[in-house]
Amino acid sequence: MPAQAAVTASRAQRTGSKRRLRILMIFVLCFLCWGINNIWGQFAKLHDRKAVVADMQRQLTEAKRVNETTTKEIARLHNDEYLDQIIRRDFHYSKTGETPLSASKSQ
């Protein structure tokens, strides 16, 4: 009978080991699923942030272009000849003794 008791104890120990191993595997699987879910979410957030950064870079480039154009226009406005040209063109001013000519657009 002692051999029978040893076999029964050994079988019980293997059953307990299998149960613990199964519980451990379930825990590891759950942990891996959680980790993969977090990584997937981080990739989605990273993609969104990259899109925002690209849009901001585009806006920055546009703002720099507008700033450069405005700076050039300001520099040109300090020239008296350019100011005379703008005044004549946009506000239809003329010097004394000049006859303004207007070209009508044909319809």
UniProtKB/TrEMBL annotation:
Q: Recite the UniProt keywords alphabetically.
A: Coiled coil, Membrane, Transmembrane, Transmembrane helix
Read off the Pfam families from this record: DivIC (PF04977)
Q: Which residues cross the membrane?
A: 21-40
Q: Does the keyword rRNA processing apply?
A: no
Transferase found in the keyword field = no
Q: What GO terms describe the biological role, i.e. biological process, of this protein? A: cell division
Organism field: Paenibacillus whitsoniae
| Coiled-coil residues | 53-80
Query: What's the protein here called?
Result: Septum formation initiator family protein
